Amino acid sequence: MQFMTTWSAYPGTIPEWVDRFLAGGAAPQEGVTLLGRWHNVDCSGGFSLYETDNPDALYKGAALWAGTMEIHTVPVIGDAAARPALLLAFRK
């Protein structure tokens, strides 16, 4: 299953999370595959796309960063999976 995580830095924490990121602290937890990560051009946050069958591992990773940024993680599906549901719900 794929999950989208968005994050935004708490005020005053950018130097701390940049140091941790550059030191390799942003690697995904065991059992989680990082499919991509993008950063806002103003260094205020960004988003990552993960794949895992273990949401507990996502929680563990988020907990490591919770003191420096607001984090939101949601399961996501692609267009191919969304289309049949949208047709069923809106094209009766």
Low-confidence segments:
none
Gap from first CA to last CA: 29 Å
CATH fold-level name: Alpha-Beta Plaits
Mean pLDDT: 94
User: What is the topology, as strand order, of the major beta sheet?
Assistant: 2-3-1-4
CATH second-level architecture:
2-Layer Sandwich
* CATH secondary-structure class: Alpha Beta
Topology:
Blueprint lengths: L1 E8 L4 H9 L10 E7 L5 E7 L3 H11 L3 E8 L2 H12 L2
Antiparallel strand pairs: 1-3, 1-4, 2-3
Tell me what you see in this structure.
The protein is α+β, with helices and mostly antiparallel strands. The chain has a single domain (2-90), classed as Alpha-Beta Plaits (2-Layer Sandwich). 35% of the residues lie in helices and 33% in strands. A 4-stranded antiparallel beta sheet has the order 2-3-1-4, with helices on one face. The longest helix is centred in the C-terminal third of the chain and has 12 residues, at 79-90. The two termini are 29 Å apart.
Supply the key terms.
3 helices; 35% helix; 4-stranded antiparallel sheet; single chain; alpha+beta
Q: In short, what is this structure?
A:
This protein has 92 residues and is an alpha+beta fold.
